[in-house]
């Protein structure tokens, strides 16, 4: 199965751009009347018919919409971008495969990276969504200063950082299944004392991801995976 | 804390190679009598004294050995190397951080990659072990034909592959805490019917890592993380 991304449907039809149209008509050799799978990236699985096999601007018409079930709760991951951009990029890819609602790149006191290319991260997330046949495209927020962001978070909120003396409860035990949450992961140089104090004032609960010292991006993915496991449909 | 790797101790002393000696004496400016942390990669935390600060062949003496607790059970991950070597390399790095005993690269019927550089994977695992302050270096086996390997695995053994009709129980529910296990992850083109039959004949239990379609290396890491969570020391 190949999945197309149709974020902007108008009257149940969508025109693909030149790159996707050429891929569809020339590479996949799809013809007028063929059926295709698509998503709006917001949880809908769309069954579409190719109504104009134009290799420059192919037109699809939605025949059926199906809301994808199973996402009762969603995770927001707030994390300082790693110095090495590749590491952030793989986090976005893997977290999209496993399932995440939103990533907030944070500008922290100890951040070494102060610029990110959102468009590149968005392309990586889109490609991972299609590859893993997910119907939810994670939202990638612009780089946001820590103190602005930490004061406006609502709902259950957790913070993971190096704290050997008082690591707090395990993240999987602190989560309530079916409830959305936000998790904040420390940067490579950890949070500053002022940032930790501000998070505490704003109701963040300290949790641990285990007893290993994980790299920032590994910790981010571990948190996403723990949340997904905690909210997965039980199998027999 | 900086961790040194001393795999071959003789009479409780070890001579570092030229690269590590130079790093220790010239970069870290360690002097005779300084104490250092090291591991044998097999679960021992060694406290050492630098007894000869020779920048070409520094000599360490072990003062104290401490067995690192907490590893009651260990996981063997058997997986076909990905076509793109980078993806296998990051799996080795991340799985070492999270904790894994052994990785068995498998040559499967649908394997696109038929050669791997074990030394490079070993260097990546070593670097990840030091970075995450782990005292266990995962063992990296040579590329092994699927049918040779699958017939000789002992203990609880599981197989994850694409099977939408009958995915089996969730991996985390099939595992018994405190018990070592082996998990087999399908290659990019999935196992062949003959391989699936052979695994079944040899007592592998089909399990699922969740309802998302994960890339091979993401599935490998998800399995390692699930095993680690299942065997982690509970926190308050």
- Backbone shape of chain A: elongated
The parts of chain A where pLDDT drops under 50 for at least 5 residues are none
What fraction, in percent, of the residue positions of chain A are helical?
25-40%
> What does the main sheet of chain A amount to?
7 strands, parallel
Biggest contact: A-B, 35 and 35 residues
Query: What's the assembly state of these chains?
Result: homodimer
End-to-end distance of chain A, in Å?
Answer: 26 Å
Number of E strands of chain A: 12
Please state the CA-atom Rg of chain A, rounded to the nearest Å: 20 Å
Provide the β-strand percentage band of chain A: 15-25%
What string gives the helices and strands of chain A in order? EEHEEEEHEHEEHEHEHEH
What structural class is derived from the secondary structure elements of chain A?
Answer: alpha/beta
What is the averaged pLDDT score of chain A?
91
What count of helical segments of chain A does DSSP give?
7
Tell me what you see in this structure.
The structure is a homodimer of 236-residue chains. Chain A has 236 residues and is of the alpha/beta class. The first copy, chain A, has 7 helices and 12 strands. In chain A, strands 6, 7, 8, 9, 10, 11 and 12 form a 7-stranded parallel beta sheet that branches. In chain A, helix 5 (171-174) links the parallel strand 10 and strand 11. In chain A, helix 2 packs parallel to helix 3 (118-131) and helix 2 (85-98) packs parallel to helix 7 (216-230). The radius of gyration of chain A is 20 Å and the shape is elongated. Chain A starts with a strand and ends in a 6-residue tail after the last helix. The mean pLDDT of chain A is 91. The A-B interface holds A 70, 90, 94, 97-99, 131-134, 167-170, 172-173, 208, 210-215, 218, 221-222, 225-226, 228-229, 232-236 and B 70, 90, 94, 97-99, 131-134, 167-170, 172-173, 208, 210-215, 218, 221-222, 225-226, 228-229, 232-236.
């Amino acid at each position: 199965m190949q999945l197309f991304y149709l974020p902007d449907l108008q009257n149940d039809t969508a025109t693909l751009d030149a790159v996707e149209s050429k891929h569809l008509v020339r590479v996949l050799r799809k013809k007028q009347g063929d059926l295709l799978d698509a998503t709006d990236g917001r949880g809908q699985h769309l069954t579409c018919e190719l109504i104009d096999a134009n290799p420059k601007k192919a037109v699809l018409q939605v025949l059926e919409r199906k809301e994808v079930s199973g996402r009762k709760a969603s995770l927001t991951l707030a994390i300082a971008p790693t110095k090495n951009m590749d590491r952030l990029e793989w986090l976005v890819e893997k977290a999209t495969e496993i399932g995440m609602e939103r990533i907030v790149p944070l500008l922290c006191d100890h951040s070494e990276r102060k610029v990110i290319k959102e468009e590149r991260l968005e392309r990586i997330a889109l490609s991972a969504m299609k590859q893993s046949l997910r119907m939810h495209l994670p939202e990638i927020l612009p780089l946001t200063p820590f103190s602005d962001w930490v004061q406006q978070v609502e709902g259950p909120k957790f913070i993971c950082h190096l704290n050997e003396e008082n690591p707090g409860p395990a993240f999987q035990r602190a989560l309530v299944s079916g409830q959305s949450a936000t998790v904040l992961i420390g940067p490579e140089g950890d949070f500053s004392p002022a940032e930790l104090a501000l998070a505490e004032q704003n109701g963040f609960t300290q949790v641990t991801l285990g007893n290993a010292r994980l790299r920032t991006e590994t910790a981010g993915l571990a948190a996403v995976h723990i949340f997904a496991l905690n909210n997965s449909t039980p199998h027999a």
